[in-house]
UniProtKB/TrEMBL annotation:
It comes from Vigna radiata var. radiata. It comes from the Eukaryota. The gene is LOC106754996. Keywords: Membrane, Transmembrane, Transmembrane helix. The lineage of its organism: Eukaryota, Viridiplantae, Streptophyta, Embryophyta, Tracheophyta. This is Uncharacterized protein LOC106754996 isoform X2. It holds the Pfam family DUF7865. Residues 1-109 form the DUF7865 domain.
Amino acid sequence: MVFYSKEICVLGHGPKTASKLQGSTPHDQLLIQTSDSFSGLLLFTIGFLVFMVACVKDWEFQSFFAKGCVFLHISMAVWRFYFGRKLEDLAHDWPRHAVGDIALATSWLFFLVYLWREKYD
């Protein structure tokens, strides 16, 4: 993600929007690259956290974690609906991203249903 940020941006948003999102001055480009680096670090940390939670055998804690993830993904979808669509450069992408957030929340809901079924069977 960090090494091919321009190509990924073109793939996700198209060439016209990608050129706008890359920044027009060297200072803007440095800020965007720093932000991308922190985003990559955040994704690694979240993946490591999910891996650690997967190793925990406490069903109550996993249920609590899954509920938090559902809340997080629904919050992101709501944020994209209210604020993401107002950015003119990203306005055409928000429905796809919001559907992705809702799909991720649904996957965590399926996990909660599985935990509930295992608990009460």
